[in-house]
Specification:
single chain, binds heme C, Cytochrome Bc1 Complex, Chain D, domain 2, mainly alpha
C-alpha cells in the first residue's frame, strides 16, 4: 500500500504548520536574529575602536606615540602592512637596507637624518629625500671629486687621482689605523680640512651631520659599498645623491604616521614575527 502523508507531519501538504513546526521555525528565526545582532554589534564595536584609534593616532603629537603602548601597538600593526607594500622593496622587509644601492639600514643606531624620532621619520616618509617636493630633505649631495666640476650647488675644486687616494687613505684609516701609510693619511687630512671641504659637510670630527644627511665616516656603517678602499675611493670620485620617495600625495596621513611608528619601534627590536 503506498505511504500516505501522516496526519502528524510537521508540514502538511496544505502548507499549514503544525504546532511543533511553528515552534521550530520560531526558534530558528529568533536564534538567527540574535546571532546577526551579536555579530553586527561586534563589527560595530571593532569599527568604532578602529575609528577611535585612528583619530587618536592623527591627533597625537608624533613623538608621543613612542610612549603610548596602545597607540604604538596599533601603529605597528597598521604600519607593518603598509611598510611591506611601500618600503620593503628598497629597505627590505627586515629593514636592513642595501649598501649596494645606497639604501640605509633603518634598524641600526646610525641615522643619516636626525635621531630616529617618530616625527623625524614621519617627515621623511611624507616628503622624501631629494624627492622633488618643496619640503623634501635636499640640503647637500656628495660631490664627484674626480670630475672637472664636482659640485652643482657651489664651486668645489676637483681632486687629482693622487689627492683622491690620499683622502681615501684618511677615511680608511678611521677604522683601520694600522693598515694605511701614515704620510698619505696626513696629506688626506690636509685635504679633508682644506681644499676638499669635507669638514664642511661631514664635520671636523668626521662623524657627519644629521641636519644635512652627511654620513658619519668614522663608524663601520656604510650607506654605500662595503667600506673597502676600493669602495671609498669610488664614492669620493663619482659623487652620491640617494633618493627616498615622498608619500604625502599617495598615502593617507594615518598610514604615513603608522609607518613612522612601526619603523621607530623596529629600532628597539620590537619588530619580529610576533604579530
Ligand atoms: C626606491 C627606493 C626606496 C623606497 C621605496 C623607500 N626608500 Fe627610504 N630611502 C631610500 C634611500 C636611497 C635613502 C637614502 C637617501 C640618502 O642617501 O640620503 C632612504 C632613506 C630613508 C630614511 C632615512 C634613514 C636615515 O638613516 O636617516 C628613512 C627613515 C626612510 N628612507 C624610510 C622609508 C620608508 C618608511 C619607506 C616606505 C614608506 C621608504 N623609505 C621607501 C630609498 C627608498
Ligand atoms: C657638500 C657636502 C659634502 C662634501 C663637501 C663632502 N661630502 Fe661626502 N657626502 C655628503 C653627503 C650628503 C653624502 C651622502 C650621500 C647620499 O646620501 O647619497 C656623502 C657621502 C660620503 C661617503 C659615503 C659614506 C657611506 O657611508 O657610504 C664618503 C666616503 C664621503 N662622503 C667622503 C667625503 C670626503 C672624503 C669628502 C672630501 C673630499 C667629502 N665626502 C665631501 C656630503 C658631502
Amino acid at each position: 500500500m503506498p505511504a500516505r502523508p501522516s496526519h502528524k507531519d510537521p508540514i502538511a501538504p496544505t502548507g499549514n504548520l503544525s504546532g511543533r513546526g511553528r515552534r521550530t521555525l520560531w526558534l530558528t528565526v529568533t536564534v538567527t536574529v540574535m546571532v546577526i545582532a551579536v555579530v553586527t554589534l561586534a563589527v560595530a564595536q571593532q569599527l568604532h575602536k578602529h575609528q577611535a584609534m585612528k583619530s587618536r593616532l592623527l591627533m597625537a603629537a608624533p613623538d608621543d606615540i613612542a610612549n603610548d603602548r596602545e597607540l604604538l601597538d596599533y601603529a605597528r600593526r597598521r604600519g607593518k602592512v603598509a611598510y611591506g607594500q611601500h618600503c620593503a622593496a628598497c629597505h627590505r622587509s627586515d629593514m636592513t637596507g642595501d649598501p649596494g644601492r645606497g639604501i640605509p639600514n633603518l634598524v641600526d643606531a646610525d641615522w643619516l637624518y636626525g635621531t630616529g624620532r617618530v616625527g623625524e621619520i614621519e617627515r621623511i616618509v611624507l616628503y622624501g629625500i631629494r624627492a622633488g617636493h618643496s619640503k623634501t630633505k635636499n640640503l647637500a649631495d656628495m660631490p664627484a671629486f674626480a670630475t672637472s666640476s664636482p659640485y652643482a650647488r657651489y664651486t668645489i675644486e676637483p681632486l687629482s687621482p693622487r689627492e683622491v687616494d690620499d683622502v681615501t687613505a684618511l677615511v680608511y684609516s678611521f677604522k683601520h689605523p694600522e693598515a694605511v701609510d701614515k704620510e698619505a693619511v696626513a696629506r688626506g687630512a690636509a685635504i679633508y680640512h682644506g681644499k676638499g671641504l669635507c669638514f664642511d659637510c661631514h664635520a671636523d670630527h668626521a662623524k657627519g651631520d644629521p641636519a644635512i644627511g652627511a654620513p658619519n665616516l668614522t663608524d663601520d656603517i656604510w650607506l654605500y659599498g662595503d667600506g673597502s678602499i676600493k669602495s671609498i675611493k669610488e664614492e669620493i670620485s663619482h659623487g652620491l645623491a640617494g633618493v627616498c620617495p615622498q608619500w604625502v600625495s599617495r598615502l593617507a596621513p594615518e598610514t604615513i604616521r603608522a609607518i613612522a611608528g612601526y619603523v621607530h619601534a623596529a629600532r628597539d627590536g620590537k619588530v619580529g614575527t610576533d604579530d
